[in-house]
Amino acid sequence: MLGEYGPLAIFSVIIISGIVIATPLGRNMNIGLNDTRRMLLGLIIVETGTLLTSMWTEVIHREIAATGGTNFCAADGMVQCGSVIGDPTYSEFFGISWGMIGMLSFSILLYLSVSLFFGPRDKMANVWLSIAFLMSLPGLVGVAWLVIVELFLVDGAPHICPYCTAVHVGMIATIVILYALRNQNEEGQWDIANN
Fold first, then answer.
1. How far is Cα 51 from Cα 32, in angstroms, rounded to an integer?
2. N or C: which end of the chain has fewer CB within 10 A?
């Protein structure tokens, strides 16, 4: 059990910690950052956890492709990843695995978020923020499609892939945090103090 879901527990704690830091609950944590940088820190943590989870789904995908099975995630029952990540029809998008798509996407989003965290006063900060937000939006389509695949399309559906679900939660949290930061920026409430 720990072998199958131990990494999931770690990745989930990272994602949830980032969500808490980015929300108003984070104000009570005495992090020592203004609201903008606190939200950016939470975003960075969420994206890091989601990137790690995407990497793990890629490991699972490659092991299933190479050996036909995996010890990294359950392969039986309703809550499992084998039939979802290992499905030859739905585990890839134009020949690229969903794990690899997540790794590439969250690497770019993480880069933009770290740049914003360390350079919130940069004259291009609002452009980078808008690019990050717009780049994250197709993730909603990906999440919706993969949920449909899990619930209706894979062999023996429904199956819930817990690692995929963690990525979906991270993706949605990323979009919401970026939306809040973008609104803050557009309303002139972008706090660019030194801390």
1. 26
2. N
